[in-house]
Amino acid sequence: MSAEGEVSKVTEALHELNVQQVIQLPKLGPIDFSISNAVIYMWLSALVVFVFFFIISRRLRKQPDTLQTIGEILLNFATGHLTGQIGEKGKKYYYLILTIFAYIFTMNILGLIPKPEILKPYTPTANINVTFGMAFIVFLVVQFQGFRRHGFRGYLGSWLTPPGVPKALAIPLNLVFFVVHLMGELFKPLSLAIRLFGNTIAGHLVILVMLGLVIEFQSYLIAIPPLAFVLAMNGFEIFVAFIQAYIFALLSVIYIESAIYAGH
Amino acid sequence: MDAETAAKLAAGLGMGLATLGPGLGIGYMTGRTADAIARQPEASGDIRTAMIIGVALAEALALYAFVIAILLAVAS
Question: Is the N end or the C end of chain B the one with fewer CB atoms within 10 Å?
Fold first, then answer.
């Protein structure tokens, strides 16, 4: 417990979760285009994903080496296990789904690697703007597919009372069904974004709080159990990084599927 | 009790209470999955996928509370 007004060392360590400006740029109206460490780590993750798949695609051989095998496993995973469940209509979405999966996984793993203060460490997925931006892209794809495949009337019609209900009952029920479906569609991207954000930031906070014990007490005796816990927690966080990327991709597939087969 | 103390108390209590439901749900789901895999090991892949989706949906409830708790503890 530190006294009022004095910034404790634990609070200082929390700077890892703060966005820091690296290059200041002038504001355009309300939008700030300054390059922060979050942006830099997002670019870095995108670069890693791009270079990885670029190298693999340049050196395809009959007898695959380790790198090519990893790439083929990822591609089979995206085309078979993830988008395969949509059926023939969903084959082309593996571009989007594989990119989302690889990008989120890389951002999570890059954020887990301990970095010195000079590199301004940051995990982009621990920022709700990043996760909500990605969820919003999925939302746009889902709604666009729904409207394109069923038409305006057909897609909105699939939100109303299902056929077979008597007319007198269906008309008042339409309002209820429409509102419920609208809320459902709006909460899909919200839950995607908050799930990824919450999981990432909760893991980082638990690690930080445990390391905060070491910083606060400054004793070797107290340091050992938290360090062991942090080591175990880091291993668990690698698992969580994979699971969250997988969940985000899988739920995106399920949402796209529900829009393609709306009304069935 | 002033407003800030009340908000921090609410954040801690709310977070603890909010983990109860999802914790029960995830435990029940995982147990049922173990049952189902023991009954039909050849369908374990599909069952596991269904479990992971269910766990993710249940976990999201605790995470909503977590976001609210952070807002209460930091923003008040």
Answer: N
